[in-house]
Specification:
The protein has about 550 residues and is of the alpha+beta class. The chain is built from 15 helices and 29 strands. The two termini are about 25 Å apart.
């Protein structure tokens, strides 16, 4: 191995798929020295993930690539429907229009095209170095950093970083170097995924739907512009080996009118859908994100979405810690917040899967009757699931430790008008902490120390007005923010960089208390977990 380098990167990201790319982009835009280490020499050229929701669109917007992403996605303009074997609707979910985050409710894409946008934006940052064809095979905690052994076709070398993020997939090497356990819910179903390019331009209506036929549950969705995806459940008498052949793919596509004469078969593979999560996502200077931290069935389309939520949650916290604006113990809230939220996504995906993956005809008939009787209304036809909310972390607390309603929930993004221009809120704030207030009055309660803290945090003050906003003010152009604040008796709301609600205030003094609580939560004493373990090599190759 060559002599140990003196340079210590702020962050080394192991794995450069969509989650690693987003982390590199966000951290690089914040000015941090990032090196991304990807074991494969070239980007994977075939489809994999295919869907993101409105919240993830807002995250792309935060990364400065909103318009580029829109150019390679296929937004949904109708509904998502489940039908039984006879073609009767079992459930109909409205996916038309924009979601609460100001982006289309549902969006479909071809992953290589999306990755090209993400990777290009990350690599354009002069603070980001991307190294492909470099496999991390060992790591060692020493000298206040992590020393990675990296093998490439030409050499074995050492890379040092203050923090290492394992975004290296389900068979994560970084996870194997951590002393953490995995909760596995024992959910296993094999499905054949078939990605195609139809030769003709066709109108698919509904654009995305689910055939709940016990003879062969099937999913039919967009694969991004110009592409279609079919997913076929493996039946008990079939082997994985026979199902993953091109012949099996064409046999299953034939009833849908897809043949080699009118369709290009782009990819076919069998996936085993699973439901599991790692119990601790951070160990000292090692942190997990994306599939390295959790896996879920695809029935809710939340796999990559959950990884992107990991990325923005972790990025803003690492940004503060690396700059010394927050204590390293802040990073422990990454696990507590995201783990509870992702368990909701996993639970929802499993609940939908248990409705879809019914092979017994009698059980399917009972299911169909119940859902049809509910009028195909998802509020009544599908199993109830709790709303997605962050677990304990950087969130407002009442004196008794309880949370106010809405705290830890995703906040909406509406259009506002500022200095003569009307656009979505984040186009003006650029992300970061945002303080929404009913006019400037509540801000008068903040003293110089409060304002200095918010300035150091990079927070944006957004005084809102229903009409006639003064210079420097923001007109609530869509009427989305002020009516909600006033209905709940609030004069201010603090929104975190990941767009989740930190807390609210009912008057000026309570806004000052709210800002003080945020300040206190960011400067907690150092947690023992951040202290690097005694130097000891941890060997093993990533088994991706």
């Amino acid at each position: 191995m060559p002599g140990s380098p003196s340079k210590v990167h702020d962050v080394a990201i192991v794995g450069f798929g969509p989650v690693g790319q987003m982390l590199a982009l966000l951290l690089g835009r914040s000015g941090h020295d990032v090196v991304a280490l990807e074991r494969w020499p070239d980007p994977y050229p075939l489809p994999r993930a295919a869907h993101f929701d409105h919240e993830i669109g807002r995250i792309f917007q935060a990364g400065g690539i909103g318009e580029e992403v829109r150019a390679v996605t296929d937004p949904v303009h109708d509904h998502y429907e489940w039908r039984n074997a006879a073609g009767r609707p079992l459930v109909r979910i409205d996916w038309s229009g924009s979601g609460p985050s100001g982006w289309p409710t549902a969006n479909f894409f071809n992953q290589p095209e999306l990755e090209a946008v993400l990777a290009g934006a990350a690599e354009s940052q002069n603070t980001v170095t991307v190294r492909r064809g470099c496999e991390v095979t060992d790591l060692l905690h020493a000298d206040g950093c992590v020393r990675l052994t990296v093998n490439s076709a030409h050499a074995t070398e050492e890379v040092r970083a203050r923090y290492v993020i394992g975004a290296d997939g389900a068979n994560s090497f970084v996870r194997s170097a951590m002393n953490t356990t995995v909760t596995d819910l024992g959910f296993f179903y094999d499905w054949l995924i078939v990605d195609t390019q139809p030769h003709e331009q066709a109108e698919w209506s509904p654009m995305n739907w689910q055939l709940c036929d016990p003879r062969r549950p099937t999913t039919i969705v967009s694969g991004g512009p110009g592409r279609r995806r079919w997913e076929f459940m493996r039946l008990p008498h079939e082997s994985v080996e026979e199902l993953r052949t091109p012949e099996a793919a064409w046999r299953l596509l034939e009833p849908w009118g897809r043949t080699p004469e009118n369709t290009t078969l782009e990819r076919h593979t069998v996936y085993t859908f699973q439901a599991r999560w790692v119990d601790r996502w951070r160990e000292g200077r090692l942190i997990l994100a994306g599939d390295a931290a959790h896996l879920m069935p695809p029935f809710a389309g939340q796999g990559m979405c959950s990884g992107m939520r990991d990325a923005i949650n972790l990025a803003w916290k690492l940004d503060l810690v690396l700059d010394g604006r927050a204590d390293a113990a802040l990073l422990d809230t990454y696990t507590s917040e995201r783990s509870e939220h992702v368990q909701h996504a996993i639970g929802m995906s499993m609940a939908l899967g248990q409705v879809i993956c019914v092979l017994d005809e009698s059980a399917a008939a009972s299911r169909d009757a119940r859902m049809i009787a509910a009028g195909a209304d998802p509020r009544h036809a599908l199993p109830p699931t709790p709303p997605p909310v962050l677990g304990d972390g950087v969130l407002q607390r009442a004196p008794d430790g309880s949370r106010a309603p809405g705290v830890g929930h995703l906040t909406p993004q509406y259009e506002v008008t500022h200095q003569g221009r009307t656009a979505l809120l984040d186009e003006f704030t650029g992300g970061g902490f945002t303080i929404l207030t009913d006019g400037t009055g509540p801000l008068n309660a903040l003293d110089t120390a409060d304002k200095d803290f918010l300035s150091a945090l990079g927070a944006t003050l957004v005084p809102l007005y229903a009409v006639d906003a003064p210079p420097g003010g923001y007109l609530d152009a869509s009427g989305g923010y002020l009516p909600h604040l006033r209905e709940h008796g609030h004069v201010a709301a603090v929104v975190r960089p990941d767009f989740y609600l930190f807390g609210t205030a009912t008057d000026g003094p309570s806004l000052r208390d709210l800002v003080g609580q945020l300040h206190e939560q960011l400067r907690r004493p150092t947690a023992p977990a951040d202290r690097a373990p005694a130097p000891a090599p941890l060997a093993g190759a990533a088994g991706q």
